[in-house]
């Protein structure tokens, strides 16, 4: 029977076996596990593992030390494995090693599955999609692969996960607005803008959320802050999507805002857009 392993990388890497936290060891041993996790079920060669731990000038004992780290990880993650039985979690696969665990064993993999589910449900079942996103975002405890995120072998995977986290957050705000959760949408959009001040989509959603809450002056103020931030940071004006929302606010065009959220203009009307047309 496969061991009950839970691995968390959306924050400081952690592991549980049978529901009990395990100590993953020192920095290099933890880095070995992180490299295998970053590979997302792919095989990591022995040479790449050595290079990831010691760089271009590994010590003569590098291979022996690496095998010791792998052996300790196997004992930690499969404590009940009998002598002579092949490991099933950290496996030997030419030309190196791989991590073999269930789909739900790694929080990053669960996050991606929940996000994919939410994207499929968004157009037809927004409430269920919103719940999936809430569960997905709750898995994050901090930056992905914290403590090793600056290592060259972790940077691409961390960047990919960060982009997916931003996409999930943006979709959650859109769905919150469509479902009429205007107050929460304003708060979430503000947090998004704070975390990603160069995301035009975050600014666009904040403006829509404020206007749908009947706060036209605040929405226009947010547009001014958006323009100033983009000009100061990257020397650009907002793109066409933000400008369309600005025009809709200035002309009181609730239909254009509803279209910007994928429909549900009735909700926007009820949440305050109609007031702005008066």
What does this structure look like?
- The chain is mainly α.
- Among the domains are: 5-101, Winged helix-like DNA-binding domain superfamily/Winged helix DNA-binding domain (Arc Repressor Mutant, subunit A, Orthogonal Bundle), CATH 1.10.10.10; 183-278, Alpha Horseshoe (Serine Threonine Protein Phosphatase 5, Tetratricopeptide repeat).
- Helix content is 60%, strand content 7%.
- It has twelve helices and six strands.
- The chain has helices spanning 27-38, 46-54, 62-77, 107-121, 126-138, 155-178, 182-195, 200-212, 216-234, 240-251, 254-260, 265-276; strands at 5-8, 14-17, 20-21, 44-45, 90-93, 96-99.
- The strands form two sheets. A three-stranded antiparallel sheet has the order 1-2-3, with no helix packed on it. Strands 4-6-5 form a three-stranded antiparallel sheet.
- A hairpin with a 2-residue loop joins strand 5 (90-93) and strand 6 (96-99).
- Helix 4 (107-121) packs parallel to helix 6 (155-178).
Question: Layout of helices and strands, plus pairs?
Answer:
Blueprint: E1 5-8, E2 14-17, E3 20-21, H1 27-38, E4 44-45, H2 46-54, H3 62-77, E5 90-93, E6 96-99, H4 107-121, H5 126-138, H6 155-178, H7 182-195, H8 200-212, H9 216-234, H10 240-251, H11 254-260, H12 265-276
Antiparallel strand pairs: 1-2, 2-3, 4-6, 5-6
Helix pairs in contact: 1-3, 4-5, 4-6, 5-6, 6-7, 6-8, 7-8, 8-9, 8-10, 10-11, 11-12
In short:
With 278 residues, the chain is mostly helical. It has twelve helices and six strands. The chain is elongated.
């Amino acid at each position: 029977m496969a061991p009950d392993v839970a691995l968390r990388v959306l924050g400081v890497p952690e592991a549980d076996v049978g529901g009990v936290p395990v100590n993953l060891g020192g920095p290099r041993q933890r880095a070995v596990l992180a490299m295998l996790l970053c590979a997302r079920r792919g095989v990591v060669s022995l040479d790449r593992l050595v290079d990831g731990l010691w760089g271009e000038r590994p010590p003569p004992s590098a291979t022996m030390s690496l095998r010791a780290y792998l052996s300790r990880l196997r004992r930690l993650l499969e404590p009940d494995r009998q002598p002579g039985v092949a490991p099933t979690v950290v496996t030997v696969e030419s030309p190196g090693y791989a991590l073999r665990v269930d789909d739900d064993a790694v929080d990053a993999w669960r996050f991606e599955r929940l996000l994919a589910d939410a994207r499929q449900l968004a157009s037809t079942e927004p409430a269920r999609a919103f719940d999936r996103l809430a569960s997905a975002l709750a898995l994050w405890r901090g930056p992905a692969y914290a403590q090793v995120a600056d290592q060259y072998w972790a940077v691409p995977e961390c960047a990919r996960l960060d982009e997916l986290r931003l996409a999930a957050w943006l979709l959650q705000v859109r769905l919150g607005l469509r479902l009429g959760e205007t107050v929460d949408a304003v708060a979430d959009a503000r947090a998004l803008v704070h975390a990603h001040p160069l995301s035009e989509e975050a600014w666009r959603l904040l403006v829509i959320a404020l206007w749908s809450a009947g706060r036209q002056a605040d929405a226009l103020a947010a547009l001014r802050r958006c323009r100033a931030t983009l000009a100061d940071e990257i020397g650009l004006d907002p793109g066409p999507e933000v400008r369309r929302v600005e025009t809709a606010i200035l002309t009181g065009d609730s239909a254009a805002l509803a279209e910007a959220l994928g429909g549900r203009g009735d909700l926007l009307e009820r949440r305050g857009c109609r007031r702005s047309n008066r």
